[in-house]
Each structure stands twice: as structure tokens, then as C-alpha cells.
Amino acid sequence: MTFIEKLGAAERHNQSLLCVGLDPDPAKFPLHWRGDASKIFDFCAAIAEATADLAIAFKPQIAYFAAHRAEDQLERLMAHLRQVAPQVPVILDAKRGDIGNTAEQYAIEAFERYGADAVTLSPFMGWDSVQPYLKYHGKGAFLLCRTSNPGGDDLQNQRLADLPGQPALFEHIAALAQGPWNQNGQLGLVVGATRPSEIERVRALAPTLPLLIPGVGAQGGDAAATVRAGWRGNAQSTQAPIVVNSSRAIIYADSGPGFAAAARAEALKTRALLHACRVLAG
User: Given a cut of 60, is residue 163 above it in pLDDT?
Assistant: First the structure.
């Protein structure tokens, strides 16, 4: 299956819009592993096993592994995810944004070394920073579009005076991703949950693309507003999927030996909330 097909199958199979973000910080691990970077794989594997039937996707953040020289543990984790949750796509959150030969090497890293189903990218350098990833048939790429950090206004919301209608930069990225850049049909966009009105604007410009939406959970994004703004479909099917990420609220739900069970409970609660919002939106 292509990434988009796998995403749709996971949504139906697990009845979920929830993406479980895997951001392993040893300083926040359960007390019996606290501060031990050698336990990164064990921690993430336990979370994944506890939530494998609840997620539309998993999203490991590469910096949390690289910072602790744990790339080998990330390789093990990616292989483990394919074993314990073969129906759930894995989005490697890397936010790569280079061009040419360097971008080709980053694509090899994401899709050949780690075996990711999709990767996050920064499109600031234009088409050249996206094209190398599209050579991989069926693999997905989410382009940073309208992020929720305050500094996102510095560039993303600036108007492009040379284009008709003077769209904001994020609007131009959404239109490019929906149109000429989407040459393999596997592009998506990253839009922060704390800006539901702008999720709705992105959805209007990119009516069929999957949206990866971080910010629900510890960052305070409103689940109902997020689903209403981004998800499109009816009771039978989804026409425009959303992948709503929650990381810290799930993986650090408890610091005791029952951390995985607590993560499952939090994921169940979040999945149920998103599902209820989807029913209302549909």
C-alpha cells in the first residue's frame, strides 16, 4: 500500500485519528529508568505496544534519538513498529529542508535506513527540497505549512505581494502541495492545532491532502475545533484525513512501573474524544 492508503486503512481499522508521538526524553522516563538513555528503545516499544490498536500513526521525533546517540535504537524501534503494528504507518519527524545531493541522502536516511512510511519536511528552499523524497514510490511527505509556535508569524503569515491575491506564505505552500508539487500523490501538510481558523483555511486550499496536526494534549489545542476545521467526510468514509498528534500527554502519563498502561488509558481517552468530534463534524 502507499502511505495514503495505509493511513486510510489504519483510520478504519483502529477507528482513530490519533497519532502517538514518540519523543523519548530520558530525563522524563519512569523512575526506574530515569536518566538512562540506553532504555530509549524499551520505553518507546512499551508505549507502542500499549497503543498499537489505538493509533492512526506513530511519529518518532528523530532529534530525541540523535541527541542521545540512539540512532541504533531508532532503527530497532522502526523495525519493532513494523512487527507489532504493521497496519499503522510511521511518520519520521525529521523536518529536513535541504536540496540536491544532501536531500537525496536525507531521503535515503528516512526511507531506506529507517524504513519510514512518511517524513516531515521544511519546504523553505522550494521544490528542490521536496522532489528527492517523491522518487520513493508510495512514500509520504508532510510539508511544514502553518505551525503553532509564536515565531511562525515571522514568515508563514507574511503576504506574497508578487502573487495574485497576495496570499500568505502558508497559503501558497498549501496550494503548491495540493497542486503542482504533489507529483506522487502522497504529500500532506503540517498545521498546528492551536490555530483552528488557519487549519480551516489550509483545508480550503488543500481539500484532499492529509493534515498532520500537532498540539492537542499538552500544548492545549482544542480537539473539537481541530476536527471541525480539518476533517472532511461522512459516516461511511473520509475524504480528507487528519492525523492529530499527541506526544507528552500520552507517553508521560505516569512515571511509575505502570507507565505503558497509563499511556494506553490516555490514548483511549484522546481517541474517543477525537472520534466523538468526528461524528459531530460528519
Answer: yes
